Amino acid sequence: MGHTCFDVEITDKVGHIQMNRPEKANSMIAEFWNELPEIVDEMSASGAVRAVVLSGEGRHFCSGMDLSVFSASGSDVGPTASGAKHTSRRGERFRSTAMKLQDSFTALERARMPILCAIQGACVGGGIDMVSAADLRYASESAYFCIAEINIGMTADVGTLQRMPRLVPEGIVRELAYTGRKWSAAEALAAGFVNKVYADHEQLLSGVHEIAAEIASKSPMAVWGTKKSMQYSQEHSIADGLEHIATWNASMFDTDDMAEAFAAQMEKRDADFPDLWAQSRGL
Fold first, then answer.
1. What is the pLDDT of residues 13-38, one digit of tens each?
2. Are 183 and 145 in contact (CB under 8 A)?
3. Count of other CB atoms within 10 angstroms of residue 87
4. I need a surface site. Which of 16, 34, 164, 198 has the fewest CB within 10 A?
5. What is the rounded CA–CA span in Å between residue 215 and residue 111?
6. End-to-end Cα, the chain, rounded Å
7. Residue spans of beta strands (DSSP E) within 90-133
8. Are the C-beta atoms of residues 224 and 276 closer than 8 Å to each other?
9. Which among 142, 116, 121 is positioned nearest to 54, based on CA atoms?
10. What is the dihedral of CA 234, 144, 104, 134, to 10 degrees?
11. pTM as predicted
């Protein structure tokens, strides 16, 4: 199936989702918001994809929301029963649109496999919303980040303000959100927002794919359990988090995976774990 905004491939259980509009700095047009969650949800449901690399073609990772999306969400709702235009539901439409956009990035969190972002050049506005919802972030030296919404007179509303303060000190997020200044890859690394900085885009993609392949070699059930446990613990007390992982392992821990891991170590070979159970999209 072809996509307007993405090129998709799966190799050795690692998915690669690449934004493919470099001439527009991979701005997020209307099709983007439908395609991204569809692709991620499909990979997650398949059970056969164990890690995903999310990247952008060209000089820039992502320049954020395309102006056409702003225009559509702020336009008149349409004719009334009498045929006259009205704007009394503009706020309702804007809110509904914002929540749909938010869900497009929540798809990265609900995926059963980790999402790794490879970021070069600009990661602006909606780009930060997106990478903040991912599991891991890596950057090239050219990368920079900008919570740009403040520069056009609005408040960021697709996830940055909710997720980024859980990744770096809140004071840093406040400064970036209030000023709209550029934040360099070096600063992002120092703050822990990105895991590693590579010299250039080629090394970035190679390095991130290598990490994704290593993740894909582990028990997918154990990786999924780790992701779920850490997500749960972000929003609950330590005591609640401990109870959650005890319950998770009581129901989901696969002793066959542990046996295979030990056997592979003893026999000095790569472990061979089964895929996750394929989920029916209709259930």
1. 999 999 999 999 999 999 999 999 99
2. yes
3. 11
4. 34
5. 15
6. 22
7. 115-119, 122-124
8. yes
9. 116
10. -40
11. 0.90
Q: Which amino acid is at 267?
A: E
The arrangement of strands across the sheet holding 196-198 comes to 6-11, 14-19, 51-56, 115-119, 136-140, 196-198
Question: How far does Cα 157 stand from its chain's mean position?
Answer: 16
Take residue 247 and report the two structure tokens written for it: 């319950």
Domains contained in the chain, CATH given: 6-216 (3.90.226.10), 220-267 (1.10.12.10)
The one-letter amino acid code at 12 reads D
Which helix (H) or strand (E) element contains residue 269? none
Token pair belonging to 125 = 């506005």
- Residues with Cβ within 8 Å of 117's Cβ and at least 6 positions away in sequence, in order, are 53, 54, 55, 61, 130, 131, 134, 136, 137, 138, 208
Q: Per-residue pLDDT tens for 212-252?
A: 999 999 999 999 999 999 999 999 999 999 999 999 999 99
Classify residue 268 as left (phi > 0), alpha (psi -120 to 50) or beta. left
